[in-house]
Amino acid sequence: MTIVFKNKDGQVRSFWKIGLAFILMSMLLGVFLFPLYAQMALKNTPMEELLNNPLNNLYGMFVQCLSVVITVLICLKLEKKSWESVGITHIKSQWKNLLMGLLLGAISILFITLILVVTNQITLTSVKITSNLLINTGIFLLGFIFVAINEELFFRGYVVSTLLQTRSFPIAYIVSSIFFGLMHTSNPNVHILGIINVMLIGFLFAYMFIQTKSLWMSMGYHLTWNFFQGNIIGYNVSGTTGSGFFRIKSEDNFWTGGSFGVEASVWTTVFIIVGFIVTKVYTNRSSQAKVQLNRINEQ
């Protein structure tokens, strides 16, 4: 069997580019995580326990982001492409998309919580607000900013834009979403509906990226979706233990998502679909407004 590295246009095939980028990113991450691995060896402490320390967790989130930024920078240099090609556009023209993403992510998780409380699937008990809780909340806000940049830049910015080299939107959507879902299968308390929802939300973020030609909307949604889950309300985030302003007593079923967190809830599936509808309406109106503005400027 012959291994074909290039397509008929003479370009390196998208799957090879993504595979090599992933290997480079993993190698960089391994180097940057050396301080945590050293702590594991010296203290004979599991990584999970080390990451219970908010500062260690923040460091892990930061170096993941750094690894992705360096990887994408190298790939762009080799391919002679600009940051705009992977959705890093000027905030002046994209602040409305960022704001829309921030609102959509926060409102979605808050509405899901309201439904679960009203239907008695969960009960919320407020915790005592201390200086440590507020400091940790600020640390995790910064950490989730790194996560939003890291995952959107790689999975949507680089992976989706590279898959579009195939000139097939279905391939770009489906392959990037499956890849995004598979990367979460090693998370704690993994749940099949949770992975399906992660794939669906990856599909939604790819749709936002392609529709707006930037990453700002998906970054905004990703940030508030994670932050409001884990550090405002206190759900587990993709199986990872959250710590918010409430203590949650939850039924373990497909309505709540159980130990994986609300991302494995059927209500999340519903609100991802709502996210597609809202994004379509919003981007259509934005496109119409731009057309009208161009006509006015031409007159």
TrEMBL record:
The keyword tRNA-binding does not apply. The keyword Transmembrane helix applies. Residues 138-228 form the CAAX prenyl protease 2/Lysostaphin resistance protein A-like domain. Keywords: Hydrolase, Membrane, Metalloprotease, Protease, Transmembrane, Transmembrane helix. The lineage of its organism: Bacteria, Bacillati, Bacillota, Bacilli, Bacillales. It comes from Gottfriedia endophytica. InterPro entries: Rce1/LyrA-like_dom. GO terms for biological process: CAAX-box protein maturation. Pfam families: Rce1-like. Coiled coil: none annotated. It comes from the Bacteria. One of its GO terms (molecular function) is metallopeptidase activity. This is CPBP family intramembrane metalloprotease. The chain crosses the membrane at residues 15-38, 58-76, 97-117, 129-149, 169-186, 192-210.
